[in-house]
Amino acid sequence: MSLLQTLSLFLITILNSNWVCSTTEFVFNANFNSSNLLLFGDATIQQRHSSSSSSNDNNNNKILSLTNDSTTFSMGRALFPSKIPSLNSTNTSFSTSFIFSISSVNGFQPGHGFAFLFTPSAGLAGASSSQHLGLFNCTNNGDPDNHVFAVEFDVFKNQEFQDIDDNHVGLNVNSLTSLASEPAGYWVGEEEEEEDDDMEFKKIELKNGVNYQVWIDFFDSRINVSMAPAGKRRPRRALISESLDLSDVFLDEMYVGFTGASGQLVESHRILAWSFSNTNFSIGDALVTRDLPSFVAASEGSRGLVVGVSVGCVVVVCGLLVIGFLLLVRKRRKTNKDEEIGEWERDYWPHRIGYKEIHKATMGACCGS
Question: Which residues cross the membrane (predicted)?
Answer without folding.
Answer: 305-329
